[in-house]
Write a structure and sequence with these properties.
It contains 14 helices and 13 strands. By secondary structure, the chain is α/β, with parallel strands linked by helices. Strands 2-8-7-6-5-3-4 form a seven-stranded mixed beta sheet, with helices on both faces. Strands 9-10-13-12 form a four-stranded antiparallel beta sheet, with helices on one face. The protein is globular. The relative contact order is 0.16.
Length: 367
């Protein structure tokens, strides 16, 4: 292969897509910012010592995000694993190499039942047992000498009976670290969860930050985050396979640098403009109604909901989504029985001009 040739998705038989779903891993998260790509390339040209890199980047992230320390991990799931390992084994080399055998260690993590989710597998893989609670009284009663950590999920913060601040306060009172998974949320400055008193909070680097997809960002207490680093690569501990390369570390640092510079209000207006163009293309069709859904804590973007009478237009939601996916270029959306959602969050400039006429064509053809 010459210097001018390289593999592309098309050359290996793939069909790239226009992402109207959002920052979901299954459709590869986000597109990296140009500054992130440049940082990746620059970092790839030279060697550094990874312990020194972690220390320097941790301090720089702390300054940018106005917190005690920062850690780059191999995705937010890796952060769940490494923070849990740090709470269980600390920096004790003998304990670290024995995980997930937790014999003689603290081996329980307390979580509200409403905060359980698929990704807590990354916590359980450390060898701990999750203890479910519902109320403040149950939380207090569950704490023992075996409690290693209190676990929370940001997206479920408003569903549980115990608030994030209460969970954190209970942990602090008992000398127990608390960690919150906020993977798809905005790492705003100042940080809402650190202000609530949690020990650490984890974000995906490849979602709203638009850093490397295989990176994660952890903010919080310096001692805990440095212990988490020792429980991961390049050290020989449980999370050794979860390697964040020098390129990913510097790429995520570039994403954080850009996060505090980006004009977030202008980005929001751009998302609204994209929705307007798509909505205008179909609003005159029979039975079509439009509604803008405002976001929750995760995937913080407005979303355009498009509904219609399947009988009137002769096609249901799955049919529209399938036609968009099978067309050229490929367009991916979420759908309901007689509806689709168009999320402008991860659309690239100009793609609304492709989505709008294609959607009108599909809905009109079956009318």
């Amino acid at each position: 292969m010459s210097d001018l040739e390289f593999p592309t998705y098309e050359k290996i038989g793939l069909r790239p897509l226009i992402n109207c779903r959002g920052t979901y891993t299954i459709v590869s998260g986000s597109v990296m910012l140009p500054e992130v790509r440049a940082a990746l390339v620059e970092a790839s040209r030279r060697y550094v010592h990874l312990d020194e890199l972690s220390a320097a980047v941790g301090a720089r992230i702390a300054a940018l995000m106005q917190c005690e320390w920062g850690l780059v991990t191999n995705g937010c799931a890796a952060a769940l694993c490494q923070i849990t390992a740090a709470c269980v084994a600390g920096t004790d080399p003998e304990k670290m190499i024995r995980l997930p055998d937790t014999t003689g260690m603290k081996d329980e993590v307390i979580v509200q039942k409403s905060h359980r989710h698929t990704y807590d597998h990354a916590v359980r893989m450390v060898g701990v047992r999750l203890i479910e609670v519902k109320t403040r009284a149950e939380l207090e009663a569950a704490i023992s000498e075996r409690t290693a950590m209190l676990l929370m999920f940001g997206d479920a913060a408003d569903r549980g009976q115990v608030s994030i601040a209460e969970m954190a306060a209970v942990g602090t009172a008992h000398g127990i670290h608390s960690f919150i998974d906020a993977a798809a949320e905005r790492p705003d400055v100042p940080n809402r969860y650190l202000a609530d008193g949690v020990s650490a909070v984890g974000y995906s680097g490849g979602k709203c930050l638009r850093g490397p997809q295989s990176s994660g960002l952890v903010l919080g207490r310096k001692d805990l985050l440095q212990a988490a680093f020792l429980n991961g690569a390049p050290h020989h501990a449980l999370a050794r396979p979860m390697k964040a390369s020098k390129e990913e570390v510097m790429g995520l640092l570039a994403a954080v640098e850009m996060w505090v510079r980006r004009d977030h209000d202008a980005e929001w207006k751009q998302w609204e403009r994209r929705m307007q163009i798509v909505g205008d293309a179909v609003r005159d069709l029979a039975s079509v109604t439009l509604e803008v859904h405002q976001p929750g804590r995760s995937n913080v973007t407005p979303i355009l909901g498009i509904k219609w009478d399947a009988g009137a237009l002769g096609i249901d939601g799955a049919g529209v989504a399938g036609a968009l996916s099978q067309g050229e270029p490929r367009i991916e959306v979420f759908h309901g029985d007689s509806s689709i959602n168009v999320n402008p969050y991860m659309m690239e400039e100009g793609e609304e001009q492709i989505v709008a006429p294609r959607l009108r064509e599909i809905l009109s053809t079956h009318n």
